[in-house]
Design goal:
With 75 residues, this protein is mainly α. Helix content is 59%, strand content 0%. The protein has a domain at 41-75. Helix 1 (26-47) packs antiparallel against helix 2 (53-74).
């Protein structure tokens, strides 16, 4: 499987779920990268607290938040 950067215009290649593809503007690419960078910072910060069910849920919800934000940007 070929890997692409999430802001790359080839990101929809071999994606069986996305049949139509929207070319992202530079602003949209920057927005997506910023969302992911900020979420990664928070994810890593939460991970520094240790391990608990609550932290696991928080990290999962953060991943879901990123998914929905990216879906809005790329939709």
């Amino acid at each position: 499987m070929t890997e692409f950067n999430s802001t790359d215009d080839k990101r929809a290649t071999n994606n069986v779920m996305r049949h139509q593809y929207k070319v992202l503007s530079e602003t949209e690419k920057e927005q997506m990268q910023t969302v992911k960078d900020k979420a990664l910072d928070l994810h890593e910060y939460l991970s520094s607290f240790g391990a608990s069910r609550e932290l696991s849920l928080a990290r999962t919800k953060l991943e879901e938040c990123v998914m929905w934000a990216v879906k809005d940007i790329t939709g």
